[in-house]
Amino acid sequence: MKTLILFDVDGTLIYSERRDSRCFAQTYTDLYDRPFPTIDWSKYPHVSDTTIFAHLIQQHFQRPVTSTEVAHFKRIYGERLRQHRLDNPHHFYEVPGAAQAVSQLLEHPAYLVAVATGGWKESAEIKMQHVGIPSQRFWVSGADDKYTREEILQEAIQAVQNTPSTFNRIVYVGDAAWDVHTTRNLEMDFVGIRHGHDHDVLLHLGATQVLSNFLNFDLFIKAIEAATPPLANNARENI
């Protein structure tokens, strides 16, 4: 039996100093001629591309979003992402060691790899391909047709369960507060990544394992093996 390692994308495998967020915001403003309130994703419900987009359409036009306009927005946003990477490739980079770590995990007999991200699947694949992460070799679950991050993680798990591979443990690797909240809700083991070395952000929320990057693969594996679900606040205070 193996361990399934689920990765977030933005801030976990890839970093762009919020250029991708600004790209999302500019696409919205160009298409709808409305101001984008904030690129602080924590201000939006469920922190997924689907909910952010639906929330803004409801806020600005007092109506639900349609599947047609979601598809149109995703296409324009994807084109903008690709063009930004062609124009300024050095602005978009992997969290140190991420591509190599994923490649090693794909060859490791004890681990399975999948991605579960709050972004849409196509945009996540564009980002991973840019930094050499072979997204065609594993399942990628995004916010397409899903509103909560719990749904996204559960889809990825189900997809891997539908393959011949078997696993008896799941660890999610993410970088943000909502990753801690989601894995706590699902009682799922969690490893935090804070490439700015500000580990306390996630430790304070209850994460028990936080690293700065993937450069030391052995250290990453030790964190995976030691990972637990995030602690509740009262449990954290008693440590």
Summarize the structure.
This protein is an alpha/beta fold. It is built from ten helices and eight strands.
Sheet bearing the most strands, described? 6 strands, parallel
Rg from Cα = 18 Å
- Span between N and C termini? 32 Å
The number of distinct structural domains comes to: 2
- How many β-strands, per DSSP? 8
User: Class of the largest domain, according to the CATH hierarchy?
Assistant: Alpha Beta
Mean pLDDT across every amino acid position: 94
> Could you give the order of strands across the largest sheet?
5-4-1-6-7-8
Strand portion = 5-15%
What is the fold's blueprint, element by element?
Blueprint: E1 2-7, E2 14-15, H1 19-32, H2 49-61, H3 67-87, E3 93-94, H4 98-107, E4 111-116, H5 121-130, E5 139-141, H6 149-161, E6 167-174, H7 177-186, E7 189-193, H8 200-203, E8 210-211, H9 217-226, H10 233-237
Task: Describe the protein's architecture and organization.
The chain has 239 residues and is of the alpha/beta class. The protein has helices at residues 19-32, 49-61, 67-87, 98-107, 121-130, 149-161, 177-186, 200-203, 217-226, 233-237, and strands spanning 2-7, 14-15, 93-94, 111-116, 139-141, 167-174, 189-193, 210-211. It folds into 2 domains: 2-15 and 94-237, HAD superfamily/HAD-like (Rossmann fold), CATH 3.40.50; 19-90. It has a 6-stranded parallel beta sheet with strand order 5-4-1-6-7-8, with helices on both faces. The two termini are 32 Å apart. 41% of the residues are buried. The model has no long low-confidence stretch (mean pLDDT 94).
